[in-house]
Amino acid sequence: MRSIGLILTLTLFTLTSVAQFKNILLDPGLGAESPKAPTVAINPKNPKNIVAIASPGTLYYSMDGGLAWKKNAVTTAFGIAGSPVLLANGKGTFFLVHRSAPAGDQKTTHIVCHVSDDGGQTWDEGSPIGMTLNKVLDNPAMSFDSKGNLVVTFTQFDSYPSTDPDCTSRIMMSTSSNGKKWSKPFQLSQAEGNCLDDGHTAKGAVPAIGNDGKMFVAWSNQEKIFLDRSYDGGSMWLSNDINITEQKGGWKLSVEGYEEAHGMPTLLIDNTAKGIARGSLYVVWADQRNGAADADIWFMRSSNYGDNWTPPLRINKDDTHRQQYLPAMAIDQSTGNLYIVYYDRRDEDNLSTNVYLAWSTDNGLNFKETKISETSFTSDGGTLGGRMGIAAYKGIIVPIWTRSDGGKNSIVSAIIKQEDLVKIK
């Protein structure tokens, strides 16, 4: 059965214009569930087809490059529990993974993958990943190789949350050739974390796969970012748990006024057809090495498959010593340009937050940045969720984020052209 749900046409909603880029209100957050933690994907076969999702399971799709959007909801017999992530392959097929749990049961969870062959309009009922583990599974991420094989990574908790010193968390992986049948998950990480869901919990694993089959996974644990790598498509893993950088304060940041102000890493690989940076690895994260009241966005790159990394580069250019957090990164695989979106408090003396975009056209050597939110917002103790999203292809950049105004969430996006970024000094 294909799940369609209620479909509504959304129109562009422009907030008071104080910025260069028009903000698009995808969801005013009027339903029973407060949307948060959105992600987005662009169909590389048809770049006008854009699909987004917000936790726990509200979908948005556009067939005209973001001029008009429609809204529906993913459903599954396995239950919707949030943490959704989207991906589109070169054939135009969309994949969606999310955390799943039976109604009223959050102690035993698994990951479910859905497939859409019609641009995100309808989805299959979903296939479970890790159902037999009888553990709490969370925070999935996804990638695919040049043959279309899928990889999903996630955190497995013995119990969640738990103060038991013997309770541990670990990074797991599962693979599939089609998104419908999945391998038995196996433990990827060597060092385990706690079950407190703090900076000493193993979390935020994200895979990246090169066109040559080399596979990489980065995640946070013990106030560090670790890297695992395989040179044969995941059959054998070499140099496990390489500590590539410190993450002072850990991935769970202390940001006044917000829950889930995370700094978990994003890992990407340059799979452009040509160019000197082909095969380069990029990682972005946030931490509080400059103080608990001064989280910053950091970036590193490696040109030799993770053997060596550049020193951490601070992406936010402000000198205000205020908070920047929850970064997400995309690479336009048609150009190699990099884009990083993040929440930023530099412009306000209070707890008000804006959204900034940073970009690099020289493979991460240099970045520029600009504010893309038209107005700031103040959550008053609300939650933004553990993710914001961004996608880029053929010069079109689509960031997506959560606004939380007085505890009420809404989902906002923008359609940005690289040719317009070039005009910013």
What are the key terms here?
mainly beta; disordered N terminus; 425 residues; 1 helix; 5-stranded antiparallel β-sheet; 30 strands; Neuraminidase; 1% helix
Put simply, the count of helices is: 1
Oligomeric state of the chains?
Answer: single chain
Q: Could you give a short account of the major beta sheet?
A: 5 strands, antiparallel
| CATH architectural category | 6 Propeller
Mean pLDDT: 91
Between the first and last Cα atoms, what is the distance in angstroms?
51 Å
Which stretches are poorly predicted, pLDDT < 50 over at least 5 residues?
1-19
Q: Which fold name fills CATH's third level, the topology?
A: Neuraminidase
Estimate nothing, just give the exact number of structural domains: 1
The order of strands across the largest sheet is 1-6-5-4-3
Question: What would the principal axes of the Cα set say about the shape?
Answer: globular
The CATH class: Mainly Beta
**What percentage of residues falls in helices of 4 or more residues?**
under 10%
From the alpha carbons, calculate the radius of gyration and give it in angstroms.
20 Å
